């Protein structure tokens, strides 16, 4: 008889995703306004969809090169150079992946020896720590705090480093906090990284969604390009989440190791998605700009509204999440989110799902229509009146 | 005329939804309600905001019998006033919805609405073609409107996203 004993002990030991519970609750409810969605509310632009359709009509249904279409990698190289001032060779330093998620997994598996530590800057995307574990490493969580707007401080970084530390994984602009590190802050952090001979896995999937300060890539600071595994993709910037298409830029030796794993696990990213991405990079920039303005307006609206109704909220520089404090209510994140869903039918994600220091906060995605956001604010305001 | 970033942003937002609550609009552009109202008043006075209109899909309404035609008009421009004078003579007719000066094989594109094809035919033959400067007209009737001013008339694509995702 097959039972749970057949499941690998490592997998069994992974914590279940904290989001699952809310998904199950919310999915079966009528009239829910959701601020829980971690993806754009835009549909991929028609020109990109049309390019993918055309690639199918042309019969381009075979594998591509393992690393992805060379034409696409060249386009990515041009984009990285122009947007972030970092220079990568398309032939040796760029890998097209099945979403940024695959990139993160490959990066971790390519560099970790058993027992080595990876610093996970938290609150963060739910997959980082489990993927470190699955790669045989030991996740060491750095708890950034609300007082610093969840920005990693040099002291926090230094305190976490041990002789066993191999790398740090960090996301900026951040999911769930929206926090973005500016150039000065990056310089201070990278000095410590270099001093301790660490690698950085920089998840820059939200790089195009920076609203106030221009975005600085980890790889562009000093000679950090030599110790950065840069993760990016098309999901957020071009509203292409379902296409599952990301890319990695890294030093050649590391990229080749990642490519080896990618060959064994994926062969290549989906061909039609790659043709869509090619069109996006070539002609999709007006859409990116429109989406960015729209997110910025909604960010401004929701942050101001939250602060007015008693949810203290820092101004997140990027991504599409507000991360307000619920301290005033005295409730835990889980119980706030649960009560809000049951009483007012507004879905948010409790902050502790993204790491301990997210306790006392909730993640609210503002990638929803203004009408939905207005309705959510109205309902949350009513809820706050009863709980403070 | 130069507008600042905030004014431009306000214009772009109300162009999509002119009924938006001013306090919400103020939040979106990091401004105050008073400042937004002043900006809008200023833009109205300058006739940059010309009118607050809505887009109505009349085809859905049984009581509506209107037809729309796009008419390509060739005209002789006049010394000193170019096309403006004849354009004015045309756009003053209440049947005329829009008039554009075009590049290409004809000069003015005139959009006319009427209660029936006959009514528009009469307008073209009796009013438009008889104007001194008008050389020729070609009338195209609109059979169906799919998209107008950036808005698709069909049901919008549904939000198929899962309600909670990481």
TrEMBL record, chain A:
Keyword Transferase: yes
UniProt EC number: 2.6.1.-
Class of enzymatic activity (EC top level): transferase
Keywords: Aminotransferase, Pyridoxal phosphate, Transferase
Gene Ontology biological process terms, A to Z: amino acid metabolic process
GO molecular function: pyridoxal phosphate binding; transaminase activity
Start and end residues of each Aminotransferase class I/classII large domain: 31-380
Essential cofactor(s): pyridoxal 5'-phosphate
Family matches, as InterPro entries: Aminotransferase_I/II_large, AspAT/PAT-like, NHTrfase_class1_PyrdxlP-BS, PyrdxlP-dep_Trfase, PyrdxlP-dep_Trfase_major, PyrdxlP-dep_Trfase_small
Gene3D superfamilies, alphabetized: Aspartate Aminotransferase, domain 1, Type I PLP-dependent aspartate aminotransferase-like (Major domain)
NCBIfam families the record matches: PRK07682.1
Family, similarity comment: Belongs to the class-I pyridoxal-phosphate-dependent aminotransferase family.
The protein's name: Aminotransferase
Organism: Peribacillus psychrosaccharolyticus (Bacillus psychrosaccharolyticus)
From TrEMBL, chain B:
Protein name: Lrp/AsnC family transcriptional regulator
This protein's UniProt keywords: DNA-binding, Transcription, Transcription regulation
Record PROSITE patterns: HTH_ASNC_2
Pfam families: AsnC_trans_reg, HTH_24
Molecular function terms from GO: sequence-specific DNA binding
InterPro entries the UniProt entry points to: AsnC-type_HTH_dom, Dimeric_a/b-barrel, HTH-Siroheme_Decarb, Tscrpt_reg_AsnC-like, Tscrpt_reg_AsnC/Lrp_C, WH-like_DNA-bd_sf, WH_DNA-bd_sf
Domain HTH asnC-type: 3-68
Residue ranges that the Swiss-Prot or TrEMBL entry lists as coiled coil: none
Phosphoprotein listed as a keyword: no
